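for the writeup, i need someone to sanity check this before i put it in the appendix. the sequnce is what the collaborator sent (i think, or maybe the updated version? ugh). structure was predicted straight from it, no edits. if anything looks off just tell me and ill rerun, i have time this weekend
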Amino acid sequence: MTSITAELKENYQVDITNGTHVWRADEPVDLGGDNTGPNPYDYLLGALASCTSITLALYAKRKNIDLSSVSVEYRYDKVHVDDCAECDDSHSGMINQVTSRIFIDGDFDEATRKRLEEIAVRCPVHKTLEQGIVFSETVFAG
């Protein structure tokens, strides 16, 4: 189980910890923040990108694939459904869309490259986001 604690500090600065590491989130200046850290969507995409990279590295190591480099780029946008070629008729209005560009390099054949493409979208964070999340929330007011 993963557990994170976040505490609002000055303005929109938020200090986050998992009990071992501490990091900060903030909003950019044009949104009223102080830009002292990445914004929450940066962290979400960072979690996805790091999970994809690690998943590819673990798979390559387990299968003895010579993977010399992995570079992952994710972009988040809120787009109109009409601009989404992958959307079905059940969507309307605006949707959240994540676009990826994954670059892999190494000494491997075409079949291995295709398998690495399949593995890239199977990282646990990707699967969690794709399947959706059920929230169980309690808010305490003092």
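The mean pLDDT is 92. The first strand starts at residue 5 and ends at 8.
thx in advance!!
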